[in-house]
Amino acid sequence: MDLVTQRGLSPYSPPYAWRLVATALSFALFGVGGVLLRVLVFPLLGLLPGDALRRRTRARAVVSRTFRLFVEFMFRTGVLTYEVEGAERLGRPGQMVIANHPSLIDVVVLIAFIRDANCVVKQSLWENPCMRGPIRAAQYISNSGSMDMLDEAAGALQNGETLIIFPEGTRTVPGSSPEFHRGAAAIAVRGASVVTPVVISVTPTTLTKAEPWYSIPSRRFHFRLRVGEDIDPRQFTEQAPLPIASRKLNDHLHQHFMKELASDERSAT
Question: One of this protein's Pfam families, by short name (predicted)?
Answer without folding.
Answer: Acyltransferase
